Amino acid sequence: MQLHLANNHQLTLGIDMRLFGSSGVRGLVGAELTPILAAEVGMAVGTFTKAGQVLVARDTRTSGLMLENAIVSGLQACGAKVFCLGVTPTPVLAYLTRALGADAGVMITASHNPPEYNGIKLFDGTGMAYGDEYQDEIERLVMHENFRLAEWQNIGEATSINEESLYIKMVLKSFRLDRKWHVVVDPGCGATSQIAPAIFKGLGCKVTAINANHDGFFPARNPEPNADSLQCLAETVKALGADIGVAYDGDGDRAAFIDENGAFVDFDKVLAAYAAYAVKSFGRGVVVTNVEASMCVERIVEPLGGRVVRTRVGDVYVAESVKKFEAVFGGEPCGAWIHPRYHYCPDGILSSALLLKALEGESKKLSEFVADVPVFQVLRRNIRCRNEVKHAVVRKAADSLKASFPNYRDISTVDGVRLALEDGWVLVRASGTEPLVRLTVEGESLKVAEKIMEKAASAVTKVVEDFESEGRCFGCRRRG
Ligand code: MG
Is 87 in the same domain as 6? Predict the structure, then answer.
């Protein structure tokens, strides 16, 4: 069986070309992610759940309904009973999958990627994202076209439902805010456009919403919330004298924050500060983060009696470890935070509401809340690299990096290659969703970090170039 994956080629699934990346199926619509593939994933889920009850939701992308129709068709063909939620944030879909007792949840989203991308993320009946084992099973079913199609009289039904209010009630019943916070909300025209402002109003906040209409072209800003894309939010917070600005990615599992001065709050700092607050609230406990997060998490959590567990990059792996270690909190420095008291899906809306609760608990403004986190310098750089060779490049980069940093203290390959150095660390890993190799460096000062980055980037770029030139030579030999 061949999959309709990349560059209009039919590529046999191999080690470096899998259906699932670090965050589900993800690809360029029409080239890598087609309605045919979507229908096959639908049939695989229908087969895997033995014609169970399946919730389907999507973010605001222009291709969302087209892919939803294909997935629903595949599910129905296998006899599954389908409930369509329409435009809904990923964490709401995950929560409702468990709350409504469904067998699976299917989220159609490319998260923070540009509008021409889309993807499929799967959740089990407990609201946990499919891990490697379940993903492999779906992949095998698609690869072998091993679908259990229903007889004509058993074709599944599909119904549209609106149960968002269940999620809203869950949040509003879970905790209260004592202060009337002025919150500027920027959903970026994504799936949180209506529900996030509604929840903050329900919590008694004064809400100003910008970019809060569904639009799959994401005309207002990049769906990835970061310092660049949130300039308008920052200016609005400052101009209005608001307490905080909150922003989400396209599907609402990530949150980013602007403080009361209109300054973007560093992802690592706010992650570490919230992790410390969670440990303090519970008295002790485990915090889970990934290999990319700053060492400031350990520096602030450990003196409070907390323990930090580090995982591979990807919210699925963080969620699994949160559950396994019964952690009090889990999060990645992209703004995807997991609050296990509520559910195991990263939840941007819940994260932003709980951050306000934390500020109340500490009687601090947001800038004060993060002020105690030690500042190290994290630098990130992406090097373009074809999907077909990016994993091989990372494997090869290990030797190259060891040669560039002969005095390294430790090497880890839990995810990519991570070299611990005397005054920082460097991590090289292949992007799970894009044709990129990602470099992350941390140093005790900016000067140190920049020095490490230059050396590491030069070593990795050389490896990429070697692969490209080998590829060209191989092409010449083949043509000859
Ligand atoms: Mg997302």
Answer: yes
Q: How confident is the model at residue 468 (pLDDT cuts 50, 70, 90)?
A: confident
Distance from the CA of 249 to the center of ligand 1, in angstroms?
Answer: 6
Q: For tokens 């200016």, what's the residue?
A: 235
Whether 111 is catalytic: yes
Cα 252 to middle of ligand 1, angstroms: 6
Cβ atoms within 10 Å of 179's Cβ, excluding its own: 12
Per the document, the length of the chain is 480
Q: Which residue, 327, 359, 375, sits at the end of a domain?
A: 375
Q: Determine the Cα–Cα distance for residues 103 and 46; give it in Å rounded to an integer.
A: 10
CATH number of the domain bearing residue 406: 3.30.310.50
- Bridge-based pairing of strands 158-160 and 81-87 is parallel
Cα of 455 from ligand 1 centre, angstroms? 32
Which run of H or of E encompasses 389?
Answer: helix 387-404
Q: Could you tell me the CATH number of the domain that includes residue 139?
A: 3.40.120.10
Q: How far apart are CA 74 and CA 50, in angstroms?
A: 13
Q: Do 370 and 402 fall into the same domain? A: no
Ligand 1 ion local residues (Cβ < 5 A)? 111, 249, 251, 253
Q: Average per-residue pLDDT in the chain?
A: 92
- Say if CB 99 and CB 126 are below 8 A apart: no
With b for 16 or more beta-carbon neighbours within 10 A and e for fewer, the 68-103 pattern comes to: bbbbbbbbbbbbbbbbbbbbbbbbbbbbbbbbbebb
Same domain, 269 and 182: yes
- In this structure, the answer to whether residues 37 and 105 fall within a common structural domain is yes
Instruction: Kindly state whether residues 127 and 169 are assigned to the same domain.
Output: no
Of 146, 162, 178, the domain-final residue: 162
* Range of the structural domain that residue 71 is part of: 2-162
Q: Is the pLDDT of residue 6 over 60?
A: no
Q: What is the mean pLDDT of residues 20-29?
A: 84
